[in-house]
Amino acid sequence: MTVEILLLLAGLVLVLVGAEAIVDGASALARRWGISEFVIGLTVVAIGTSAPEMVVSFISAIEKNSDLAVGNIIGSNIFNTALILGLSAIIAPVAITRGNLRRDIPVNIGITALLIVLGLKKTLFGIGENGLSRIEGIAFLALFAWYMITSFVHDKENRPEAADEPGDAAKPRPLIVAILYVVAGILGLVYGGRLFVDHAQVIAQMAGLSDKFIAITVLAAGTSLPELATSCIAAAKGKGQLALGNVLGSNTFNILLILGGSAVINPLSMDNITYMDYTALFVCALSLVLFSRTGLRNRIDRFEGVILVLIQAIYFAYLFLLH
Asked: 3-state SS string over 175-204?
């Protein structure tokens, strides 16, 4: 057990170092390429930080373990929005742009609602099975491609006002250095996250926990460590749009690409996902819509960040009490 804990901590350190590198490199790329930090966070950073979820869910789909494949993603998206974005907002209020309001936040709640409806379609409408079929997986992949393309097309809407999001006046790093920072950061996040997840799962199994419980708690939190470290460090450096892009991008990537791809590999059953799981997932997505319209204009402030963290705490407390 001692060795498992030491290796778990080593993975955590690697994740933190990788997050520092990827934030610096991604910010430099955004300045070099003239792309907003939000879109860099939505694409390059989100895809890199979501690699652990992809590995876990794809392997679980190949092994026909729907509980791990789906539970990992639902738990990760709750963790991303409630804890990660909540902590980021507590560190520094996160600015919200016109593009976020018009497209990115509505897309986040739309695909979340779609996942819930498809996951409960037999229960609600008596159609098919509760879960994702291969055809629905292909549709998710098509939606993912559309969203990525439109994000670049409408990138100018994701540029915050100067007063909302401080810029980085420092001379940008050379292009090759910025790319190396991103690559090294992603490698650190992926391998550190994998090290953490592997040994956290071993410890959980030693404690006799179920696959679904491990997936929605230990695996979800562990595979979300890259997002947690990256977004919090980005917020601390005054790059709230990078943090927001990472969270929304990871949520979109998780549902559309990872669950979509997993369903194409093998249809996914969602029979063991509870109403409380669905409720927590939807409340997190809905909170972004509400918070973007209330409180301080066009930003998620510290008080709202505290509310998000409390949502995560209540959900985790429910899971542990139920188990």
From this structure: HHHHHHHHHHHHHHHHHHHHHHHHHHHHHH
Contact 95, 240 (CB under 8 A): yes
For residue 240, the Cα-to-chain-centroid distance in whole angstroms is 15
Q: What is the pLDDT of residue 19?
A: 67
Cα–Cα distance for residue pair 25/183, rounded to 1 Å: 9
What is d(CA 190, CA 18) in angstroms, rounded to the nearest whole number? 9
pLDDT band for position 163 (cuts 50, 70, 90): very low
Residue 90 is predicted with a pLDDT of 95
Q: Which tens digits make up the pLDDT trace of 74-125?
A: 988 999 999 999 999 999 988 888 888 888 899 999 999 999 999 999 999 9
Report whether 279 contacts 160 (CB < 8 A). no
Q: In whole angstroms, what separates CA 186 from the centre of its chain?
A: 15
Domains of the chain (ranges, CATH numbers): 39-159+205-322 (1.20.1420.30)
